[in-house]
Specification:
With about 280 residues, the chain is α/β, with parallel strands linked by helices. The protein is built from nine helices and eleven strands. It has a nine-stranded mixed beta sheet with strand order 1-2-10-7-9-6-3-4-5, with helices on both faces. Helix 2 links the parallel strand 3 and strand 4. The protein binds guanosine-5'-triphosphate and magnesium ion. Magnesium ion binds next to loops.
Length: about 280
C-alpha cells in the first residue's frame, strides 16, 4: 500500500493478477454497462483491429465503445461509421477539427452512459486484454484505475531512448509538482467511476494529452489503483505527439498549480478562525 496523494490509499495490483486478464471467465464483471472511449485522429489502420480486440476481450459483458474522431483525413471516420453500422454497441462521434485528446475523451464520456468509463488510445498501444482488470478495480471500490507502465510488472516497449527519457522526466515532474504517489499519472489508459469525470472541477487539459493528471491533481482524495501494463509503441500510423504537446504539458501544470493555490486560499478564508 502507498498513497495516491499524500493522504489517500493507492492499491497496486501485482503482476500475477495482471496475467489473469486474458481469460474472460476468470475476471467476471458485474452486469453494468461499461463505456470505452477512444479518441482518434488518423488511425484508420488501427481502429478496426482495436475494436475487434475489445469485443473479444469484453464479451459477454455489457459494454459500448464510443470513438471520438476529430475530422481525420485518412478515412478513420468512415471506418468507424462502418463498425457502428455492424455493431449496435459501437458509436461514432465526429468533431469538426482536431481539438485535442483530453477534450475528445470528455466529450465521449458525456455522450456515454456506463457507470464505468475507460479511456484508451486508438493506436493499439493499450492491450484490450487488460480492460477487465481495470474495470474490476472500479467495481472493487477504486475511483480511478490506472494502466500503469511504471509499477512493478509494467513495461514500455518499442520507444527509442529519447522518448523513454522524456516520458520519465515528465512523469517525475508531474509526481513532484503535484505530490502524487501514483507511479504513472500521465498514462492514457485508465478506468474511472463516471462521477469522477462528471465532477471534474477544471477543464484545463482539453487541447492536450494529460486528462489523467488533471483528474489526480484536482481531486486529491480519490481512491486510485494501478495495474501493470505493457505499453507497446504504435506499429502503424503516425505519432501525434510533438513540440506543441510539450508546451501544452507545461501550460497545464502552471494552470493546475495556480488553481490548487487559489483553492487553498479560498478554503483557508472560509474556515472559521478560532480565537482563544
Ligand atoms: N480525437 C482526437 N484524438 C487524438 C488527438 N490527438 C491524438 N489523438 C488520439 O489519441 C491517441 C493517442 O495519441 P498518440 O499519437 O498515439 O500519442 P502517444 O501514444 O503519446 O504517441 P505515439 O504512440 O508515439 O503516437 C491516439 O488514438 C490518437 O489518434 C486529437 O486532437 N483528437
Ligand atoms: Mg500512441
Amino acid at each position: 500500500m502507498a498513497t495516491g496523494t499524500r493522504s489517500r490509499p493507492v492499491e497496486r495490483v501485482g503482476p500475477a493478477a495482471a496475467r489473469l486478464e486474458y481469460r474472460n471467465d476468470v475476471i467476471a464483471l458485474p452486469e453494468s454497462l461499461v463505456s470505452i472511449i477512444i479518441p482518434t485522429w488518423n488511425e484508420r489502420e488501427n481502429i478496426g483491429p482495436l475494436i475487434d480486440g475489445i469485443r473479444k476481450a469484453m464479451a459477454p459483458a455489457e459494454f459500448e465503445v464510443v470513438v471520438v474522431d476529430d475530422a481525420s483525413t485518412d478515412g478513420t471516420g468512415a471506418a468507424v461509421n462502418d463498425e457502428a453500422r455492424r455493431h449496435s454497441n459501437i458509436r461514432a462521434v465526429h468533431r469538426p477539427a482536431k481539438m485535442g485528446l483530453s477534450s475528445a475523451v470528455l466529450d465521449g464520456a458525456a455522450r456515454s452512459t456506463g457507470r464505468v468509463v475507460v479511456m484508451m488510445d486508438g493506436d493499439l498501444s493499450h492491450d484490450p486484454g487488460l480492460l477487465r482488470l481495470l474495470i474490476r478495480q472500479i467495481h472493487a471500490g477504486s475511483d480511478v484505475a490506472i494502466g500503469s507502465r511504471y509499477v512493478q510488472g509494467g513495461r514500455l516497449t518499442g520507444w527509442p531512448l529519447h522518448r523513454r527519457l522524456g516520458s520519465l522526466v515528465f512523469t517525475w515532474s508531474a509526481r513532484t509538482l503535484f505530490r502524487l504517489r501514483v507511479r504513472d499519472p500521465l498514462s492514457g489508459f485508465a478506468a474511472f467511476r463516471r462521477e469522477v469525470l462528471e465532477t471534474l472541477p477544471t477543464r484545463f487539459s482539453g487541447p492536450g494529452f494529460k486528462l489523467l493528471l488533471e483528474v489526480l491533481a484536482t481531486q486529491p482524495s480519490l481512491r486510485v489503483s494501478e495495474v501493470p501494463i505493457t505499453f507497446v509503441d504504435r506499429a502503424r500510423g503516425k505519432s501525434k505527439l510533438g513540440a506543441s504537446e510539450m508546451r501544452e504539458f507545461g501550460l497545464l501544470c502552471c494552470r493546475l498549480l495556480r488553481w490548487r493555490m487559489s483553492e487553498r486560499i479560498l478554503s483557508r478564508r472560509s474556515s472559521p478562525v478560532v480565537r482563544r
